[in-house]
Write the structure tokens for this entry.
Amino acid sequence: MRRISAFLTLLLLVLSAISFAQENGSQKNIAELTFTGNKKTKSDFLYRLVKVKIGQALDKEKIELDIERLKRLDGIAFAEYTIKDTENGYLVNYDLVENFSIIPGLRIGQANDDSFSFRASVFEFNGLGRNITYGGFYQREVFDSFGFFIEHPYLLTNKLGLGFNYQDLTTQQPIFFPTQQVNYTFRRRGPEIKLFYELNFNNRFELSSKIFKEEYEIIEGDPQNAGKDETNTIEPSANKAMFRAQHEYVDIDLEYHQISGFQNTAELQYFSGNTDILRTEYIFNNTSSYYRRIGKKGNWASRLQLSLSNDVEKDESSFVPIVIDNQLNVRGAGNTPARGTASIAFNTEYRHTLIEKDWFVLQSNTFLDVAGVRKPGEDFGTALETNNLKVYPGIGIRLIHKRIFNAVIRIDYGFRALGRLNNEQVQESGIVFGIGQYF
């Protein structure tokens, strides 16, 4: 009896193993992976980029990550997927809505001498259908500037890419000495090469190196420079090299103009070739952004920026790198009204969709910008003191084309609720115009 029982048990185990093997052997995998809707973006580039491959087991979580990865490409406005179950396996299709990716840009404003300033650009964000960015800009901000760029984040592998740019930037810069302000021509020109590396879905790195010449020249004939103390009107210049490392963490969900999630960018720049006057050794920047959907039409966005450079004593140098500026951190505050060796800036805004059609969106925007700067030789806490703090609330509008990359025309008006930097003049209000969301 025991032998019969043992035999039946053994037979049952064998049959179970055979059944499991048959089931495992008949498990269906992905038989076909296709892309539709991509008229410009190359399918072979997309297949190299996505993580789902033919022959793999069906993994919906991996498919959904692919969809988010595709929506982050500059050339893609939206993406979704379908799965068809057949006898030979699963047919997976990624259906894409492409962006128009050749984009002219325009930014207008007021320069430091109160003259009209602008920056015009043209960029291709999906070159050769492979997410290559190239283009250039011309800028007039008292003086002429230009630059050109080419970047291919996936040139070498689906994780590794290269970029190159050359910029020749010339602007008017007010330098605040202890007893006076002097207006300079600031020029920085030189090439930069970049290396891109995508560790995984959430983490990206950049390494770059740049050589450039940095120089300041007193603007002769400037009415604000008339009668200045000649003992302070130095004209420093230096040949420098900059090494930069950046880490970007991205965990956001995109649905056309609506954004939700969190993003953080940490960047460290190290400079060599300093002089006794141009003494910037390093700059550390960290930017954290948080986005949240509010119902179907609302989008709340907040950003915290922290910047830090090596400190210098008040009487050692006034040529410090960190600024409060219209286009960087405080809308309505004017161009470069404050300089320091550290800053903290907080921006929060509520975007509400007023009109949404098939391709067009009109948004209202209500915002609050707050920023403070640490002056040379001061403690960190002084950045948040009343005389170093700027508080600018405001309102604005957004005109958005849903199928053109970054096609957001923004117009914001900010006014001063608080902000006076010792004896420096602080702009009461101002309009900020640009392309793309402020952040």
The longest strand covers residues 237-255. Residues 13 and 19 are 10 Å apart (CA to CA). Confidence is low (pLDDT under 50) at residues 19-25.
